[in-house]
Amino acid sequence: xxAAPIPGSGGLPDLRRGIGKCNxxxxxxxxxxxxxxxxLGYCEKTPSVxxxxxxxxxxxxxxxxxxxxxxxxxxxxxxxxxxxxxxSLNDILIPHLKSLFDLNYAGIMLIQFTFFGxxxxxxxxxxxxxxxxxxxxxxxxxLALSALGxxxxxxxxxWVSYPCFLAALFILASGxxxxxxxxxxxxxxxxxxxxxxxxxxxAQALNSLGTTLGPVIGGVLILAVPTVAPALRAHWSTLLDQxxxxxxxxxxxxxxxxxxxxxxxxxxGVFLLxxxxxxxxxxxxxxxxxxxxVFEDLPRYRHLLWGMLxxxxxxxxxxxxxxFMISYISQPRYGGIPLDRAALFVSLYWMGxxxxxxxxxxxxxxxxxxxxxxxxxxxNVLLVSTTLLARGDLAVGTIVATGLFxxxxxxxxxxxxxADLGPxxxxxxxxxxxxxxxxxxxxxxxGFLADRIGIHxxxxxxxxxxxxxxxxxxxxxxxxxxxSPRALTAGLPGG
Length: 495
What we know:
The chain is an all-alpha fold. The chain is 67% helix and 1% strand. It has helices at residues 69-88, 90-101, 105-108, 110-133, 135-151, 153-159, 162-189, 196-222, 230-233, 238-272, 287-296, 298-329, 339-363, 369-389, 392-406, 409-417, 425-434, 438-453, 460-476, and strands spanning 28-29, 42-43.
């Protein structure tokens, strides 16, 4: 006798008998359409032990659903915090390694040149990775690569080798580059388009919390042990000098091993969590393709081009001020503050950026991003000018205060530069992260200036950077409407 048809199956027979048995009171359902009917259907409850109920390949009842946008934003803010913490530790490494290896200002600024130079070298490969893997997997890969770089500080400290420290920094920064390329546009796109700048400011505020805590913790762990001037060490025996250098070098080892462990744990967490996969992340195009298009049609992409220069100069100015602050305010004419206490002023500088970003996240709901950027740049022009003209507490106070008005600059420039780019957003993000190389070039230039005209007068360089940002905020960030509806789809498959 033939099997009875399954209701709703289009007359196909019920082949369930003899296949297995389900838990009590389970509800057997046929495939949703006769065209895709496998002849078996599926069970809405877990089969009992020994059951062989077959499911269609189109149904995956055990698949974990992606986390929501709010939860994803929380994960992203933790990632932003971590790379802010790591970046600000460079400000502690600079005075420590300058004394350890007896370097001039230009030589020690190779720390920032190496760290931020990785952004330039690795941005294009990072954009390619984001295009192939998507945003979430790229962020996990960036965390893993950063962890590797942090672990490499151990052999660098054991060998007391400045080139090895720089190599470890480059690998660490390469991972952060991949994080930047993936995370910045991901936060901007994670929700309503109108709230992109506000969300990025909020995430950057947590980044600034990391940069605030980095110098405090780094100062305690790395700068707490007094250093001996190279002139005094010149009279030491070779054995004593080697023991001193090994001790000072080992102070860097512990903090970075701890960071490496945390980064590795975060990488595992990001891979295990299912972050929302946003559309438009995967692309076969590289940022260089967009750059070629930018120069072929300058008016249409001018806000992106000027934004790249804005990121270059802003990051250069921000990193320069933080990098030179301890050396600057520890000099007798401008503060005479001991190195370990001077690290607290670096924390105040980054704390201003953190507070400003929390405040700016709310202000941006009511004030145009370009206008707010221009106003903050004007204030910093006035503050740096006062630093150049003043001495003592006033010079220290005004240079520290620039951090507050730096706060909204990076997220605003970034959001303004990728505005209305549609499917070009991931590529544009790669170009903007590439422009972070300003953090390598501007501090090195200021190092050369400081060796020749003094550290005080060298602050003319960040003053010029802020003058450009006044222009970008009020004029350069304006989007020119595309003349053709194909403007943002030209060159894409099907475009």
